């Protein structure tokens, strides 16, 4: 090619070699009407030049004592322009593909992210497909594209750390979903999806780089993994959330009621088939008499009971819990436990604080006993595991989920902010208020 390369920047300064004949004694080299910034005759057939500034396509001429002749044509290319398909961010390890769109990209010779060069493919004059290189640290870097028309910059790409999950608040809720939770962690700004046990949430909002608000899908009763995917990667918090059942009352053999009991939540029996006393009792939910829903709930109850029993105790307890103030933990009693007066459960500011009471035999509460929740404690996070049966004394005000191996007797005037669930025996009610706390 007589002019090589035959393309360059409008700003000039490109090294171009001219090939022809009779160059000895050259006195002038011009690109269009402009004199070359410099030239050097290498031989009678070769001259090296530096281009002046210019525009469009221009003839290249060489002047010697013998006259002036055109060697060829040089094409001035405008500086490139580009942008990165939104959002211009990705993982610290690179390897992801991004699309540059703009113009003047067909002669691209180099793409850089900060100091790192990138592998790229020229798709057209208006598009590059670029594989992002890895970076050492997270944060923004300048991106440049070098072409024969010049260097384009002024574009920023942000390298992202992988996200992390610290806590989900609250960390439990209804199996049918629809509730709002707050996921706290790091590097959430470019979140693309949130899932609970692999199921996408109904909706989510990135409140900040450390907070996501999510509306939960329905799930299966029990523990669920929580995953957040961002442009920086994916993180999963195993067993970070618990789906809780819809039953407020569930008996293994039967459910019987006397008086104007009010149940908020579902009521059912399985494998027994006997439900009596509704009405006059009222259920603000559904009644399931040994149907498929009740059968599944009974199976889930057994699983939940066994999981809670298997927790390693933090502290041993015995006798009567009245007058105590207990922090979160797993409390184990080898035999029976009583409650006379008030038991205070102090969450110490943690809304996800949990209490599990592993009671080897019976739980019996005295008349007008009370479980007081303070400093963020919630009833859904309190589990009473009863090895045999529970008896809640008249006018007791109990908070928590009562899971009994055999039976539960709820005497007159008792209020339960939680659940009463019996695996093998009966639940007996008498003018009570039982409210599922989710």
Globally, the shape reads: rod-shaped
Q: Please, what is the oligomeric state?
A: single chain
Summing up helix and strand content along with how strands pair, one would put the structural category as mainly beta
Count every beta strand, where a strand is a DSSP E run of 2 or more residues. Answer: 50
Q: How many whole angstroms does the radius of gyration measure? A: 38 Å
Largest beta-sheet characterization:
12 strands, parallel
Q: How many H/I helices?
A: 1
Low-pLDDT stretches are none
Give the proportion of residues in helices.
Answer: under 10%
Distance between the termini: 79 Å
Compute the average pLDDT: 97
Assess the beta-strand content as a share of residues: over 45%
What would you say this structure looks like, in words?
The protein is rod-shaped and about 125 Å long. With 438 residues, the chain is mainly beta. The longest helix has 18 residues, at 292-309. Strand 6 and strand 7 form a beta hairpin. The strands form 9 sheets. Strands 28, 30, 31, 33, 34, 35, 38, 41, 44, 46, 48 and 50 form a 12-stranded parallel beta sheet that branches. It is built from 1 helix and 50 strands. The chain starts with a strand and ends with a strand. Helix content is 4%, strand content 56%.
């Amino acid at each position: 090619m007589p002019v090589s390369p035959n393309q360059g920047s409008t700003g000039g300064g490109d090294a171009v070699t001219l090939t022809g004949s009779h160059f000895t004694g050259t006195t002038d080299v011009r690109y269009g009407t402009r004199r070359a910034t410099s030239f050097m005759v290498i031989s009678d057939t070769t001259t090296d030049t530096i281009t002046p500034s210019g525009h469009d396509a221009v003839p290249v001429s060489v002047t010697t004592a013998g006259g002036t002749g055109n060697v060829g044509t040089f094409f001035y290319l405008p500086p490139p322009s580009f942008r990165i398909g939104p959002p211009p961010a990705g993982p610290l390890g690179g390897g992801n593909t991004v699309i540059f769109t703009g113009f003047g990209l067909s002669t691209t010779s180099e793409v850089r992210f900060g100091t790192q060069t990138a592998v790229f493919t020229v798709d057209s004059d208006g598009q590059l497909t670029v594989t992002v290189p890895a970076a050492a640290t997270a944060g923004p870097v300048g991106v440049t594209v070098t072409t024969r028309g010049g260097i384009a910059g002024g574009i920023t790409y942000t390298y992202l750390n992988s996200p992390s999950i610290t806590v989900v608040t609250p960390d439990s809720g209804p199996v049918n979903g629809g509730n709002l939770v707050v996921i706290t962690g790091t590097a959430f700004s470019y979140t693309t999806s949130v899932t609970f046990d692999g199921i996408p949430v109904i909706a989510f909002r990135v409140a900040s780089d450390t907070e996501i608000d999510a509306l939960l899908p329905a799930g299966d009763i029990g523990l669920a993994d929580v995953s957040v995917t961002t442009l920086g990667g994916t993180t999963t918090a195993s067993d970070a959330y618990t789906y809780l059942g819809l039953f407020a009352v569930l008996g293994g053999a039967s459910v019987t009621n006397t008086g104007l009991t009010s149940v908020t939540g579902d009521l059912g029996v399985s494998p027994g088939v006997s439900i009596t006393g509704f009405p006059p009792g009222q259920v603000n939910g559904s009644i399931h008499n040994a149907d498929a829903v009740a059968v599944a709930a009974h199976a889930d109850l057994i699983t939940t009971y066994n999981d809670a029993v298997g927790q390693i105790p933090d502290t041993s307890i015995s006798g009567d819990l009245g007058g105590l103030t207990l922090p979160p933990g797993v409390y184990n009693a080898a035999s029976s436990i009583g409650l006379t007066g008030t038991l205070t459960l102090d969450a110490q500011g943690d809304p996800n604080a949990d209490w599990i009471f592993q009671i080897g035999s019976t739980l019996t509460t005295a008349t007008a006993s009370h479980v007081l929740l303070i400093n963020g404690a919630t009833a859904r996070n309190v589990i009473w595991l009863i090895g045999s049966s529970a008896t809640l004394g008249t006018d007791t005000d109990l908070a928590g989920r009562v899971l009994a191996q055999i039976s539960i007797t709820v005497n007159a005037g008792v209020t339960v902010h939680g659940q009463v669930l019996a695996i093998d025996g009966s639940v007996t009610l008498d003018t009570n208020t039982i409210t599922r706390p989710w």
